[in-house]
């Protein structure tokens, strides 16, 4: 099946020369939930804004549902709903009106029944006659989702949907995403949190400094994130791994002075206890041991640390 969204070699250099996107390529299938994970300033908002036509790219191309996002802007934009990080609307606007107006902006016929359903789904129906300023922060977040859905988009972008929200609203957002997915809406969300990507997404892309450095199926990513290394410094160097330890897929390193075992922290059994017993019966002694995170976790922790250091 051809992707509903296809981004090719996308570049964005802001006025002043800062390159926020460096040749980003990405394909998203219809109906999938994709999380774009990355630290502050990685380029997540720039990427979304460029796809939604709010920011002009300086290179590359974007196809949305087969439409070129620049040459066929209106057709492409019609398919997209965008939930921004913050409420850009006027505080005096009435909740029900502002959602209906969002639909009108796309030149679509009024559909009060649809607006009612959207407001009810987002538990905003009893606030429909209130001005936006009378809503709590959490309700404003829900209203942003309602406005983005009013023209029945096929692709919904959620920019940091749970940044700064309480636990209850975070779970609500996860539920809303699940329900939209059931209806066949393609969802792309940005987040800082591995946990959030794990909860919601089927596929995860990691972006850093304007480059997508990894795209993985969530299951595969979590498997890698869950991997750890156990490194044993041996008392006496080994020429080879003893036959009875072959099942552990150990790696002999550092001129035979260290053995490394990879295990899965999510597994019911890590295999460490039996490894240590089998090492003893094979007569392999060690003087020290240390554990290490898997390389993927290193990447992400490294990204976040780098970002914090720069802040
Ligand atoms: N209008 C602009 N002019 C110049 N530089 C900009 C502009 N908008 C964003 N940038 C820069 O581009 C980089 C990427 O910003 P962007 O907002 O896309 O990151 P992000 O991953 O969404 O971060 P956050 O998680 O903080 O929202 C940042 O270094 C930012 O300062």
UniProtKB/TrEMBL annotation:
Keywords: ATP-binding, Nucleotide-binding, Transport. PROSITE patterns: ABC_TRANSPORTER_1, ABC_TRANSPORTER_2. The keyword Protein biosynthesis does not apply. Residues 5-234 form the ABC transporter domain. InterPro entries: AAA+_ATPase (IPR003593), ABC_transporter-like_ATP-bd (IPR003439), ABC_transporter-like_CS (IPR017871), ABC_transporter_ATP-binding (IPR050763), P-loop_NTPase (IPR027417). The keyword Nucleotide-binding applies. It holds the Pfam family ABC_tran. One of its GO terms (molecular function) is ATP binding. Belongs to the ABC transporter superfamily. This is ABC transporter ATP-binding protein. It comes from Roseibium porphyridii.
């Amino acid at each position: 099946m051809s992707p509903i969204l296809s981004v090719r070699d996308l570049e964005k250099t802001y006025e002043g020369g800062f390159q926020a996107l460096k040749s980003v390529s990405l394909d998203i299938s219809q109906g999938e939930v994709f999380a774009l994970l990355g630290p502050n300033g990685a380029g997540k908002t720039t990427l979304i804004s460029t796809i939604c036509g709010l920011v002009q790219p300086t290179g590359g191309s974007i196809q949305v549902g087969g439409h070129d996002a620049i040459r066929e802007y209106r057709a492409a934009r019609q398919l997209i709903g965008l939930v921004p990080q913050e409420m850009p609307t006027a505080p005096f606007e009435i909740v029900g009106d502002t959602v209906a107006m969002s639909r009108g902006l796309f030149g679509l016929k009024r559909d009060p029944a649809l607006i009612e359903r959207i407001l009810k789904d987002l538990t905003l129906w009893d606030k429909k006659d209130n001005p936006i300023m009378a809503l709590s922060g959490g309700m404003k977040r829900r209203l942003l989702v309602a406005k983005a859905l009013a023209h029945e988009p096929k692709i919904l972008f959620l920019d940091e949907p749970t940044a700064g929200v309480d636990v209850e609203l975070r779970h609500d957002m996860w539920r809303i995403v699940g329900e939209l997915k059931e209806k066949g809406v393609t969802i792309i969300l940005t987040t800082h949190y591995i946990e959030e990507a794990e909860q919601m997404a089927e596929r995860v892309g990691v972006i850093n400094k304007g480059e997508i450095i990894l795209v993985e199926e969530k299951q595969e990513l979590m498997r890698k994130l869950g991997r750890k290394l156990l490194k044993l410094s041996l008392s006496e160097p080994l020429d080879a791994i003893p036959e009875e330890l072959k099942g552990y897929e150990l790696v002999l390193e550092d001129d035979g002075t260290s053995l490394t075992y990879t295990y899965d922290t999510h597994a019911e059994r890590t295999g460490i206890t039996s490894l240590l017993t089998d090492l003893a019966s094979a007569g392999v002694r060690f003087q020290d041991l240390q554990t290490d995170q898997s390389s993927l976790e290193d990447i992400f922790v490294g990204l976040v640390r780098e970002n914090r250091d720069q802040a």
